[in-house]
Predict the 3D structure of the following.
Amino acid sequence: MSETLYPQHTALSLAASGVPVLPLRRGKVPFGNCPACADNACGGRPNMRVPGPCRCPRVCHAWAAATTDPAVIVSPAWAAAWRRAACVGYHPGGADLTVVDLDDADAIAWARTTLPATRAVPTTRGEHWIYRGAMRSVNSVRPGVDIKSTMSYARYLGSGTGTMADLPDAVRALAVKDPSPVRSTIVAVPAGVEGGDCPHRTPAYLERGITMAEQRITEASSAVHATVYRTFLAVLSRHGRCGCLTDAHVARLFTTAQNKGETARHCTDAWINARTTLGL
């Protein structure tokens, strides 16, 4: 069965095997936000990559919209997307898989001398090497090599050939980078409506809240982007109006998020989104 001619049928077959799927437009890009989610109205982050509290039934948020639920895949809300879909995408991390995207012949030659053999799927210019096990997604880990797993999507191009191997340390090591330093310019916390007077009993109350927020982000095993947003939202809902948050507190939260793989830009986006949601 051709996944190009019958993408919805292919999607249902993949979903039945536990692989979360979504329709992709021409150019292998996801569908855009619906009117209800446009301009970040739903609390998601711009560019459709990660939702906040949004539970939109449409295919609004790229990898985060991927599903194994056949009722969703055949639902009227997804029907228009399937009619326009050029191909089927899937969320590798949601199926406990990692795709090493080898973009050209040089990258393939490197993989054959460096990585354990596994299932290989031909692509337009190279190959997808698929391993059993999930990890953080990182682009450009070396020339012509991307890693697609959690919080990412890949195009489904068939089952490929070869026996799938467990995710090796050699692939995990490709994603190990030193955490990015926190930017010197932190989004300023506005003075609270109380004129900067904190109504909380002691400074220890705020310290305990920041520590718990750091722990929540650090312990996130999946959906890191969404966890960071919700944690920022929780901190700001408690302390954003009283004037007790300082740049040092915000820097601690940003540093913790970056240690989980977030970029400074993503941290800033999540912070602004949380403030906007709360009307700060």
Summary: Confidence is low (pLDDT under 50) at residues 46-51, 178-196.
